[in-house]
Structure formats: C-alpha cells, structure tokens
Amino acid sequence: MPQEFRRIEVPLGERSYSVRIGPGVRHTLPEVVAELGAARVVIVSARPRDWVPDPGVPALALEAKDGEADKTLATVEELCRRFAEFGLTRTDAVVSCGGGTTTDSVGLAAALYHRGVPVIHLPTSLLAQVDASVGGKTAVNLPQGKNLVGAYWQPKAVLCDTDYLETLPPREWLNGYGEIARCHFIGAGDLRGLSTHEQIAASVALKASVVAADERDSGKRHILNYGHTLGHALERATDYAVRHGEGVAIGTVFAGRLAGALGRIDEARVAEHRAVVASYSLPTELPAGPSPDTLVALMRLDKKATTGLSFVLDGPRGPELVHDVPERAVVETLAGMSPAPRDDLTSTADTKGAS
After folding, report:
1. Which residue, 156, 181, 279, 295, is the most exposed by fewest CB within 10 angstroms?
2. Could you give the 3-state DSSP secondary structure of residue 125?
3. What is the average pLDDT across 234-251?
4. By C-alpha distance, which of 63, 109, 118 is closest to 89?
5. What's the pLDDT tens digit per position in 138-189?
C-alpha cells in the first residue's frame, strides 16, 4: 500500500470524487471498488495486466490499444458488447488503465453503456495524469475531426500512480509537458523547476477548480483549451504524427502571438509564451507540411467555433474565449511561425508509448 500520497478533490456535489497522486496509489483500487459497492468490474488496460492490482471482486480483463487510430466509435461499440457479454450492470464498475486515448474511449463506453456505469481511471502517461483523466470529458474521433463524439461522464476516482511514469520514453514526457506548459497561462503559475509530483498536483488542482466552476463548458472551462485549437488541427493535418502535447505546445505559442497581433497583450507577454514552452524542450514553431489555409479550415471545425474562428486568448482580464477572430490575423500569425526543421518533431518518432 502507498505510504503517502496527495489527494485533490473535484467538488461536484453528488458527482464529487478524489484524484490521488503519488507512488503506489494504484494499490488503493480495491478500497475504491469496495466504497462503490461494485460486485464485479471490467478492467480495460493498454498496459500489462499486472499493472492493475486485483480489484478484490470478480473481474474481466480486456486489452486496449493507446493511440488515436483506435479512438473510434467502433472501439466503444466493441467495449460495450464485451460489457454486455460479461453481464455488467449499473451497480458494477469499469476500470481504465492507459494513456489519454484509453481514458477517453473507456470513459465514453462507460458513459453510454446502460446510460452510465461507474468508471475509475488509472492513467499511466504524464499527459493523462495531468489532464485527460480528470474532468469527465470523454470522446472519440471521426474522420472529419478530433473528439467530435463524446459525453460528460465524471469518474468515481482517479489514481495517478507516479510509478507508472518510470517506463515512459522521452517523447511521452514531452507529450505531457505540453499540457503543463499551457497551465502557466491559465492560472497555475510558474511550474518550471518543480518536481513531477508537484507539477501533476498543481495541474490537477487547477483543472479541478475550473471544472467545479463550469462542468460543461458553458463559460470558464473554455480556458482549459488554451493552445488546443491549433494543437488539434496540427494533429489532424499530420495524421497524428504531431502528438497532442506537442500540438498544444505549438498552439500555446501561437495563442500568444495571435493575442499580441490583436493588441490583447504586449510583446513581453508574447515572448513569455515562447520562453515557457521552450523551457520544457517542446517545439515552438509549425512543422513542415500543413499550410495556413489547411490549418484554418481544420480550426473552423473546432467545437468552440460557434461563430467564425474562435480561440482562447490571453488578455487584460486573463485568458478568455474570443469569437470571430479575423481570418487574416490568424493566417498572418501562422505564416510568421516558420516551420521548424523536420527532425525537431520526428527525431523520436520511432519511440512509442502512451498517448
């Protein structure tokens, strides 16, 4: 059992839950299952089976694959079929173990099956621990865009075991740092120089406070999408050769430059965006390939873009969602972010890990 861990509450009334952070916290899974009163669980894992402790009740283990290619409605349907074959009921539970794509797909399957069964997340990547597993957003992709089909379904608990991170390849650390870097500009303060444990806790605490204030993206929660509009477009434009955290990092630099172009922030603040992202050894320029016109077309498909092009941008009142951003300003800002040498984004492309 873990000797010491950090607990952060996500206060949502009857949907409240705890995020436990620290080495060995996965071993509290039987305690969480017992608190739920679940008679059985389905464990959906993209990791070796022994990464998930015995939940203390009869369990069905299903294999999953991390990665955007398997984050589809077909995956969700297959999971729901297996739940039904096992006889899972609303009084039972589902456990996910893997990166952000596994968290998203399993969370959506849990939300849809029997119109909702309890789900517990054991995120194994830095990106999943700092962001994807917390907040209740679940979604899968369509050929037309990323995360276009989903539901809000809060987990019953999130167990961020930092022991899992010991196996991450270098590029997966960068993938998580992309989300940590953008936290600098949405209220977390400067997380550079902190331990990984502290960075995870600060990121989760920020997200918990935002989600508690706006669970369903009607207002403040939009700030969590800082850097994501361009980030998602880059993922799609490169067929996911640009990873999520890398795209968010580039999108964060872009958000700073666009806010500067619109007169919302001064040059020092624009420069700060690039400096913070670069300090995590993340890319700060566009990759070679996608044209500004292609990226603009993809950004128009963003879920926030209800009228024209929409971005979360820094400004005098802090980060906020800005609608109807002039296309010319967007294109000129993109054009000013000259492509980085191709090796900058692909030097670790042969390294595979959680997403």
Report:
1. 279
2. coil
3. 95
4. 118
5. 999 998 888 999 999 999 999 999 999 999 999 999 999 999 999 999 999 9
Transcribe 252-321 into DSSP letters: HHHHHHHHHHTTSS-HHHHHHHHHHHHHTT---SPPSS--HHHHHHHHTTSTT-SSSS-EEE--TTSSEE
CA gap 351, 85 in Å, rounded: 36
Q: Are 230 and 295 in contact, with CB atoms under 8 Å apart?
A: yes
The 3-state DSSP class for residue 354 equals coil
Which letter does DSSP use for residue 166 in this model? G
Distance of alpha carbon 68 from alpha carbon 140, whole angstroms: 8
Contact between 330 and 296 (Cβ < 8 Å) = yes
The amino acid that residue 309 corresponds to is: L
CA–CA gap between residue 129 and residue 102 (Å, rounded): 12
The one-letter amino acid code at 224 reads L
Q: In the prediction, which pLDDT does 188 show?
A: 95
List b or e across 90-119, with b for residues whose CB sees 16 or more CB atoms inside 10 angstroms. eebbbbbbbbbbbbbbbbbbbbbbeeebbb
If phi > 0 it is left, if psi is from -120 to 50 it is alpha, else beta; for residue 222 that is: alpha
Place of tokens 């900058």: 344
DSSP assigned state of 128:
I
- How does DSSP assign 183-246, residue by residue? HTTTTS---TTS-HHHHHHHHHHHHHHHHHH-TTSSSGGGGGGTTHHHHHHHHHHTTTSS-HHH
Residues 15, 20, 21, 24: is their CA dihedral positive or negative?
negative
